[in-house]
């Protein structure tokens, strides 16, 4: 089974609709992230959470909100979807070592969202 | 702020050709550097990393050396295979913001296609 799962994998919705993307992980990591990927722009950080009680805005948080329901679950919501939120969305996790050296992030398979 | 500049794609090579994908960075502190790979329909996965100047990361025949003097982390492989076709992302994580602030800054990605 995959360590980081995302649901749904594909979603088509209409402008103005509320939509939630879900991420679950079995890696036992405290840190979780939401990114969006647009062609030619790489990945941009939307929100991140370093533990259940810690939520932080990333580079492009406007129009998005998140909920960290448990260590293993981190959901991304679009309160009122708009067409320029059409993108590929990735969830990721990480588990930092005590040395302060950056560790790798583990990515889910992505959710392709289309807003009409 | 931090930034990563990657060689623009797409890149198309014949099997067994030599590969170089250029990556340069700007960072305020002492970054760790990464190459991630994204195969079709999948999330990103770590290919290799280097955490200090002159370190060489290597994996699956790919190599990259952390060059502080030229602020570069170019990806190389001596003989590519069709299975190497993917999108490659250079990324950095800057510890200058303090321990635990290990967010990744990504380049825009380079699509590589290997033809038999």
Architecture overview:
The complex is a heterodimer of chains A (116) and B (116). Chain A has no helices and eleven strands. By secondary structure, chain A is mainly beta. In chain A, a hairpin with a 2-residue loop joins strand 7 and strand 8. The mean pLDDT of chain B is 90. At the A-B interface, strand 5, strand 9 and strand 10 of A face strand 5 and strand 6 of B.
Feature tags:
heterodimer, A: 116 residues, mainly beta, 7-stranded mixed sheet, 4-stranded antiparallel sheet, 0% helix, globular, B: 116 residues, 6-stranded mixed sheet, 51% strand
The major pleated sheet of chain B works out as:
6 strands, mixed
The geometry of chain A reads as: globular
| Unreliable spans of chain B | none
End-to-end Cα distance of chain A: 33 Å
Please give the oligomerization state of what you see: heterodimer
Give unreliable regions of chain A as ranges: none
N to C succession of SSEs of chain A:
EEEEEEEEEEE
What percent of residues of chain A are in strands? over 45%
The percent of residues in helical segments of chain B reads under 10%
Name the pair of protein chains with the most residues at their interface, and give those residue counts: A-B, 27 and 24 residues
Write the element-wise H/E pattern of chain B from the N-terminal end onward: EEEEEEEEEEEE
Give the N-terminus to C-terminus distance of chain B in angstroms: 41 Å
Number of strands of chain B: 12
Query: What structural class do you assign from the helix and strand content of chain B?
Result: mainly beta
Radius of gyration of chain A: 14 Å
- Beta-strand percentage range of chain B: over 45%
Compute the gyration radius of chain B: what is it?
14 Å
